[in-house]
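User: Please fill in residues for this 473-position structure.
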């Protein structure tokens, strides 16, 4: 049964309905929610945005912290509205692709019924689904209904997507495989980035992804990844020459949101420009206490100011109201670094922290959301990837864009990173000549991203292009 919020108007035969189908993981949910706001803001086009969320994540419409800045976004609140639909999903879903596949029959039926219902009253129904949700979209149903079409939404970088798709190509003479420049990049093998059961799923996933849907959207910016976006769009072997739109960075819509009540931002207000290192490894990374101890000692020994978001990774349900785990720090650490550093145990306003003038570096796991936020704010990255797309995002950051440096080599990923290594990396990023050059490049690239979301910018043009395409006669 659909649950509805903020209905602007009922769909009519002249309207275009866009149905967002996100992957139920925190870093994925927010991107399509932001895109829903973008699409709904084009109200002159008689276009209506619908957002499909699981019952497990229904609390996203509350003021839960990861979505606070989205749902309270003043740029859109007065001009947009979104209709929410809740679908049932097993409570033990861990948000891994194989688990989602196991649950897909019920989800497919729900999405199919929704598509058929909406298509009976709208001029066109446009499905925008996270590519990891492709298995719940019935292609036969989409093809059989004349006014329905689907598009994949990619939450990873165009560079990472291109490398994965190139490897799955049957053409061993493909440009990517033979290009000397790309061969010099230290791109980690896919089977090193994912567990075996996920790799088995990905073999079929990348093949089906090439032929699925009418086009693809990426949460990235042409100012950052134009080369790889063009390759994805123009390469017949990889993408069947489908249309590609770069609609990011979607988080930039939050740039005017201020959270001055948060202690992090109040503390940053008292620091000098570019003097604080922000340390965060996202919502899905857990570290051994021994590694946490080495990070703590390395930060302390570096003498650099820092904000460290330290919490247990979310386990499956990103809205679990249970007690957040408290990883163990060395005895007396927080007392010793008082005034020099701050440890945050709960959610922190990452975009606002990265955008603060006092923030001069970001030690990150290189999830694409974090990379994009850091790049757009002109903040260089100390790259410490863990798994999935993160290792290849790190290559983009450190070797292609050259706006960061690596914390440790990927081949040493199973080794403990010592406090001495962490201390040296922090010093290189924050106060060496090398760090100054990296920061300069990051700031220049961030400036280009700022221009892209301004009126007449390249990202605004991508939004206009996609809206024009889906509302065409």
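Assistant: Residues filled in for all 473 positions:
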């Amino acid at each position: 049964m659909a649950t509805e919020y903020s209905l602007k108007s009922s769909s009519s035969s002249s309207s275009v309905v866009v149905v967002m189908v996100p992957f139920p993981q925190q870093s994925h949910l927010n991107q399509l929610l932001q895109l829903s706001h973008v699409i709904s803001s084009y109200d002159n086009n008689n276009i209506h945005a619908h957002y499909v969320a699981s019952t497990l994540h229904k609390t996203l419409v509350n003021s839960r912290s990861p979505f606070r800045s989205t749902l309270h976004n003043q740029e859109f609140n007065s001009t947009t509205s979104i209709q929410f639909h809740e679908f049932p999903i097993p409570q033990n879903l861990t948000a891994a692709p194989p688990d989602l596949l196991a649950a897909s029959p019920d989800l497919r039926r729900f999405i199919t019924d929704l598509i058929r219902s909406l298509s009976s009253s709208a001029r066109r129904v446009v499905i925008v689904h996270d590519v990891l949700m492709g298995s719940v979209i019935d292609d036969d149903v989409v093809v059989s209904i004349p006014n329905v079409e689907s598009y994949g939404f990619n939450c990873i970088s165009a560079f990472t997507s291109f490398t994965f798709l190139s490897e799955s190509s049957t053409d061993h003479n493909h440009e990517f495989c033979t290009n000397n420049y790309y061969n010099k990049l230290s791109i980690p093998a896919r089977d090193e980035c994912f567990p075996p059961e996920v790799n088995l799923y990905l073999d079929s996933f990348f093949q089906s992804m090439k032929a699925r849907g009418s086009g693809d959207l990426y949460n990235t910016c042409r100012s950052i990844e134009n080369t790889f976006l063009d390759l994805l769009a123009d390469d017949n072997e990889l993408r069947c020459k489908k249309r590609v739109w770069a609609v990011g960075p979607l988080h930039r819509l939050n740039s005017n949101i201020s959270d001055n009540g948060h202690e992090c931002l109040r503390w940053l207000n008292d620091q000098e420009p570019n003097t604080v290192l922000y340390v965060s490894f996202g919502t899905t990374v857990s570290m051994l206490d021994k590694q946490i101890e080495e990070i703590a000692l390395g930060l302390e020994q570096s003498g650099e100011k820092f904000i460290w978001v330290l919490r247990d990774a979310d386990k499956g349900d990103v809205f679990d109201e249970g007690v957040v785990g408290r990883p163990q720090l060395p005895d007396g650490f927080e007392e010793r670094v008082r005034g020099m550093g701050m440890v945050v145990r709960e959610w922190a306003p990452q975009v606002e922290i990265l955008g603060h003038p006092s923030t001069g570096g970001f030690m990150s796991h290189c999830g694409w959301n974090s990379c994009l936020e850091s790049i757009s704010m002109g903040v260089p990255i100390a790259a410490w990837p863990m798994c999935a797309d993160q290792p290849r995002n790190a290559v983009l950051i450190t070797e292609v864009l050259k706006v960061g440096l690596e914390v440790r080599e990927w081949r040493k990923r199973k080794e403990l990173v010592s406090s001495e290594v962490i201390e040296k990396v922090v010093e290189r990023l924050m106060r060496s000549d090398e760090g100054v050059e990296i920061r300069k490049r990051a700031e220049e690239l961030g400036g280009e991203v700022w221009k892209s979301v301004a009126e007449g910018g390249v990202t605004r043009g991508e939004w206009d292009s996609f809206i024009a395409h889906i509302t065409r006669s």
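For context: The CA atoms of residues 35 and 250 lie 7 Å apart.
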